[in-house]
Specification:
Layout (H helix, E strand, L loop, with lengths): L10 H27 L1 H18 L8 H15 L7 H24 L3 H24 L22 H19 L9 H18 L2 H19 L6 H16 L3 H9 L11 H14 L23 H25 L8 H21 L6 H11 L20 H5 L6
């Protein structure tokens, strides 16, 4: 008589919970994909999906420091309605901030395994593929080039720079996916094929900031490989220097010279060097609380945003809001990844900073769903198992040779 099959109590329930979490990851993957080529849909409907995911996990939510700081930032933005110079613009900005908060917290709450991390990350990369296909399909009469040119091509209804920023972020997420082992490991050849395609899309789009970020990703990969003594501190410090230079204006002359030598020179970095002084003036007049989230575009003569995340956030929410944003990002990307294997952490954290640095300093990324998805994904690299130990050539453990021959060592 065969032995009875013993079912461990709670095993089926645990398996069902795992499947449900993977379904949640699948839903987030769809929203992540849309965030790359249709940010409006991701902010409106995607945020509702993320809120539903959060409600389904209500009993299992364990807020971490980054989540609490992101909530504090959102509450501060909502409070700015009471002193906003343009309440309608601030109300719109607050709505977007609530949406990216739902995306950020839902993604971080759902991802508990490498598979779930890979599912959402593949969704993001898949969205980048859709964005690239749309770019090519909607510009069939264009003369496609393999390097930056004066002509720029994008997707109808989506900001030109946003498309490029998403592709650059997609390159960083490809590096993240390369570190995921398991059933999805076989997709590596596909990821290699996508890398040159994404660079081609960036060249066609013509965003200099996004292209610089993509180049810095390659530079960081080389640095990570050849110079193991260069830690995450280096890209963090370089980003801090860039933020300081743009906040103070000390780097404007250098940027003006660099712009003069580019193919699409405008002598003022496409209007950025013209609008930044107004942002600095607004910050000096309202240094701590700002003029209300999203209000800067309504008070400067150009009618545009600052195209610089530190300046935009500091002008709208003051230095308090900027500190809350920086603290949330620092906690998510640096503090919460301290337990990750050092080599992997240095590779991944450095990659995201390299990709995002030029974007943060030259564009609007403060309420971009793609940007918050990327931050959430990289903040969860702690679910990755440590890489297998590398065996050195010519070295054997004591007694290994003797055991292999079937006798005791010595």
């Amino acid at each position: 008589m065969s032995a009875p099959i013993v079912v461990e109590p709670g095993l089926d329930a645990a398996r069902e919970r795992g499947v449900l979490r993977d379904w949640r990851a699948g839903a987030l993957a769809v929203v992540a994909g849309y965030s790359t080529f249709d940010p409006g849909t991701a902010l409106r409907f995607g945020a509702v999906i993320c809120l539903g995911v959060l409600l389904s996990e209500a009993g299992r939510i364990r807020p971490r420091a980054a989540d609490v700081l992101a909530v504090a930032l959102t509450l501060w933005a909502a409070m700015s309605l009471t002193w906003a110079v343009n309440p309608s613009a601030t109300a719109l900005a607050v709505g977007n901030q609530v949406a990216v908060l739902a995306i950020f917290v839902a993604t971080r709450t759902t991802i508990r395994t490498p598979t779930q991390l890979a599912i959402v990350a593949f969704g993001f990369v898949g969205g980048c593929v859709v964005a690239l296909a749309k770019l090519v399909n909607q510009n069939q009469g264009a003369s496609f080039n393999v390097e930056l040119s004066v002509a720029r091509y994008g997707i109808a209804g989506v900001n030109l720079n946003y498309t490029a920023y998403s592709l650059t972020t997609g390159l960083a997420i490809i590096v993240l996916l390369w570190q995921v082992r398991g059933p999805l490991h076989r997709a590596r050849p596909l990821l290699l094929v996508l890398v040159p395609l994404f660079y081609f899309g960036l060249a066609q789009n013509g965003s200099r900031g996004a292209f610089l970020g993509a180049v810095l990703v390659l530079a960081w990969l080389v640095t990570w490989r050849l110079f193991p003594f260069v830690g995450v501190t280096v890209p963090v410090l370089l980003l801090c220097v860039g933020v300081f230079m743009t906040l103070t204006g000390w780097g404007d002359n250098t940027l003006r010279l660099l712009d003069a030598g580019s193919l699409r020179t405008t002598e003022n970095l496409a209007g950025r060097l013209a609008v930044w002084p107004y942002a600095r003036e607004s910050i000096s007049e309202n240094p701590f609380v700002g003029i209300g989230a999203g209000g800067f575009s309504t008070i400067n003569p150009f009618g545009i945003g600052a195209h610089n995340v530190p300046l935009e956030v500091a002008a709208g929410l003051g230095l308090i809001g900027l500190c809350l944003l920086a603290a949330s990002a620092f906690s998510a990307l640096l503090a919460e990844t301290r337990t990750v294997e050092p080599l992997t952490r240095r590779l991944l954290v450095g990659t995201l900073i390299a990709a995002s640095g030029p974007i943060l300093l030259s564009g609007h990324w403060e309420v971009a769903p793609a940007g918050w998805f990327a931050l959430a994904l990289f903040s969860r690299i702690g679910v990755l198992p440590p890489p297998p130990p590398r065996r050195r050539r010519g070295l054997r453990r004591p007694g290994a040779l003797g055991r292999a021959r079937g006798r005791r060592p010595g």
